[in-house]
Amino acid sequence: MPDLKGTPPDRSSSTRPAAPADTLSPGLSLDRIGQALAAFYDDLIAEGVPEHLASLVRNVRPEPAAPVKSDRVALVVEDDEATRQLAEALLSDTDLGVIGCDNAEAALAIMQEQGGRVALVFADVRLAGPMDGLQLAAAITLLWPTARMVVTSGRKAERPANLPPQAVFIPKPWRPFDLLVEAERATTERQPIVP
Questions:
Q1: Which residues form the Response regulatory domain (predicted)?
Q2: How many domains, the chain?
Q3: What percent of the chain has pLDDT over 70?
Q4: Cα–Cα distance measured from residue 146 to residue 155, given in angstroms and rounded to the nearest whole number
Q5: What is this structure's pTM?
């Protein structure tokens, strides 16, 4: 920066200016970034996900995942893209493959195609399209009773009365641990078939 007399600064110095605190070093892997985000996620989810964090999560492209140990799949049905991507990212760390969509009609098409491979369906009550998550839960528990059905809602704190009895209800804001527990149960426990 020029001084008051207009003399340019001395550039012969061998010291480099310090990098701004908000820049990332070139060797920082996406896994390390993801681990750092996950460490803060539990605290943030209770207050809602700030837009700057949601934007960051949308822009992070995961490194290629290790081969899936199971041919089982988790289906995430959520119309809020940031929430869907967070659920997909969490479930991608399990033994389940992950498929996401934003409406019940797309979910039913995936179920018709993937059917017996789907171990877990995680759906919001409010979805894009004419069907809601409760109608989706009723269809899945009737047509694919071995899939573990988990429904979530930010509008209802209590289990909806018309939710099928074998479906699990988790109110929002859900914790990552709750979703991971349901994924574990989907791969290790047989889903009870309730008539």
A1: 73-187
A2: 1
A3: 61
A4: 28
A5: 0.63
